[in-house]
Amino acid sequence: MSGSPLLAELIDALRCLPGVGGKSAQRMAFHLLERERERGLKLASVMEQAMQRIGHCSQCRNFSEDPLCSLCSSSSRERQVLCVVESPTDLAAIEQATGYRGQYFVLMGRLSPLDGLGPEELGLAQLSQRLGEGEIEELIIATNPTVEGEATAHYLAQLARAGGVRPTRLAHGVPLGGELEYVDRSTLAHAFGSRQLLD
Amino acid sequence: MSGSPLLAELIDALRCLPGVGGKSAQRMAFHLLERERERGLKLASVMEQAMQRIGHCSQCRNFSEDPLCSLCSSSSRERQVLCVVESPTDLAAIEQATGYRGQYFVLMGRLSPLDGLGPEELGLAQLSQRLGEGEIEELIIATNPTVEGEATAHYLAQLARAGGVRPTRLAHGVPLGGELEYVDRSTLAHAFGSRQLLD
């Protein structure tokens, strides 16, 4: 942006946000300067604090600014069920969509040897130890239904059985509201094979 | 976001950016925390400075952190031509697309009595005074080809004539690379009526 080096710097810095290119960054900068200076200042301050203070919960590995996140330290969550997810986004999706009241464990990735992600990087030793403590009865494995997610699920199920914990997996099948005609082949084949008896 | 109040605050604050809703804000926050903490900190600091320090150039009204913006204080820009635009975005578009080497005047809006935008809000007294100083020979009116933009252009042309300055307007017509079939009616009618003699 000719005219103001600082404005040019702001537009460039905004491009670190995912999905934001030159045009959007310019629009954002002008929008903030013209109409939302107060909220822009607030965003800058919250962002600085978040980048500096948010680490990982020592128990579930989710993002948290405290050593123990509010979900792990909450007394109203059940302690017999543990749900394993790949990322905080998946945790958020489950929290928003379901009535789940148990605890979580966030892998922050999936088993992917080619990317250098093995059991250590995903904190599986920590998970294994927790499963062995005897408090947890069910391990809900909610990794994504991708090749790597399934491999991770397989590994997690073994860990659970070794710790005497019952492993369960989210059901796969035809999405609600979908039309059979447009469901992909492998999902349809899976749903057909796993058909359930109506009572 | 369950787990971290500060993260929830960051996601909420990101929604002040135009075009960013809940899902995008969440994706941005996770992206910054997982992969771009350094650039996130940099963005926070630049944004804070920009919100606090960027004001308007006293001569052209464009955004500037100095009393006189770099375009107005540049010795390599012509002083006989002044281009009037509605917004800094329009200025940026002209700078990027054309080889224009003159000066600018940014209205920061358009004449729109219903929105309380009259000649005072657009700094037209200041513009009028500058036109009367005798240095400027041509006023290029680059307001948008909308109803309000055209009304503003009409007003600006009168100001220019009163100051003894030649007013010009960007050419309207069929866009380059467009197909006549898909050009809207009024543009086509205008282009047809304003046809030019080939030499």
From TrEMBL, chains A, B:
Protein's UniProt keywords contain Cell inner membrane: no
Lineage: Bacteria, Pseudomonadati, Pseudomonadota, Gammaproteobacteria, Lysobacterales
One BP annotation, GO: DNA repair
Stored PANTHER family: RECOMBINATION PROTEIN RECR
Stretches annotated zinc finger (C4-type): 57-72
Family matches, as CDD domains: TOPRIM_recR (cd01025)
Protein name: Recombination protein RecR
Toprim domain location: 80-175
Pfam families per record: RecR_C, RecR_HhH, RecR_ZnF, Toprim_4
PROSITE patterns linked to this entry: TOPRIM
UniProt-listed Gene3D superfamilies: 3.40.1360.10, 6.10.250.240, RecR Domain 1 (1.10.8.420)
GO molecular function: DNA binding; zinc ion binding
Entry keyword set: DNA damage, DNA recombination, DNA repair, Metal-binding, Zinc, Zinc-finger
Name of the gene encoding the protein in the UniProt record: recR
Protein task: May play a role in DNA repair. It seems to be involved in an RecBC-independent recombinational process of DNA repair. It may act with RecF and RecO.
Family: Belongs to the RecR family.
SUPFAM superfamilies found in the cross-reference section: Recombination protein RecR
Keyword Metal-binding: yes
UniProt-listed SMART domains: TOPRIM (SM00493)
